[in-house]
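Bumping my old thread because nobody answered last time. Still need a sequence for this structure:
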């Protein structure tokens, strides 16, 4: 069930529709460009059609890989959500699979940022990956111990913002906001937030397990969001807790 949380305003459309000519079709305008056909050629027409088909196929074959092919485009990260006292300060993914408490997909080529012991102890950041071409395009996970179940959606988000100044600013300047409650195949509840802020877009997934609250963030500046939206949504959807609950 999707709910809007006041006082954040929803983004509204201010565009206008050009008047229809008399007796024009009421069908909506196409959302994709239509290729203009070339003037017919006499003896070379079949060759031109075949060449065009080959060119289109080549363009499609070099487009962004399908998200269904996750093996080539993503790597699975296994997070342990270890406390600051037990944190060894080592990055990487070695020997984590058997003790992982959560997982999420990392886009191929993204880099891991080493989280300091102090940072882990103050705001609960457990892991973070970023696009080396644009460091502000990133995903990270924070956790809070001692929380058995989720509270109201607005309360949960406000509590997360207490230790995240950037999230506070984004909420305050949000142009649109969405909050949903979802359940996975095991019946575990996840709160899902989408915030379209001033210059930044965020996807947040929050859940409780093992007496902890886990929050997975996917952030991107607007240009990168417009370019990578499908990939970033896949990363967002890939987060889940694992093991016993």
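Sorry it took so long. Here it is:
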């Amino acid at each position: 069930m999707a709910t809007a949380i006041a006082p954040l305003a929803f983004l509204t459309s201010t565009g206008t529709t050009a008047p229809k000519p008399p007796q024009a079709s009421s069908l909506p305008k196409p959302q994709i460009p239509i290729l203009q056909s070339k003037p017919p050629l006499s003896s070379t027409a079949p060759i031109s059609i075949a060449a065009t088909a080959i060119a289109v196929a080549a363009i499609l074959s070099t487009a962004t890989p399908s998200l269904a092919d996750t093996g080539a485009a993503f790597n699975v990260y296994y997070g342990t959500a270890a406390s600051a006292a037990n944190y060894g300060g080592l990055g990487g993914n070695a020997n984590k699979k058997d003790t992982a408490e959560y997982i999420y997909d990392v886009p191929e080529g993204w880099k891991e940022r080493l989280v300091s012991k102090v940072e882990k102890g103050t705001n609960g950041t457990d892991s973070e990956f970023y696009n080396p071409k644009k460091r502000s395009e990133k995903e990270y996970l924070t956790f809070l111990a001692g929380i058995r179940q989720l509270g109201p959606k607005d309360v949960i988000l406000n509590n997360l913002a207490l230790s995240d100044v950037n999230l506070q600013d984004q909420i305050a300047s949000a142009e649109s906001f969405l909050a949903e409650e979802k359940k996975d195949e095991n019946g575990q509840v996840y709160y899902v937030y989408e915030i379209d802020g001033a210059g930044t877009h965020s996807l947040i997934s929050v859940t409780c397990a093992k007496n902890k609250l886990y929050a997975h963030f996917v952030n991107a500046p607007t240009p990168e969001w417009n370019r990578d939206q499908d990939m970033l949504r896949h990363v967002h959807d890939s987060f889940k807790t694992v093991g016993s609950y």
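The domain at 65-241 is CATH 3.40.1000.10 (Protein Transport Mog1p; Chain A). Let me know if any region looks off to you.
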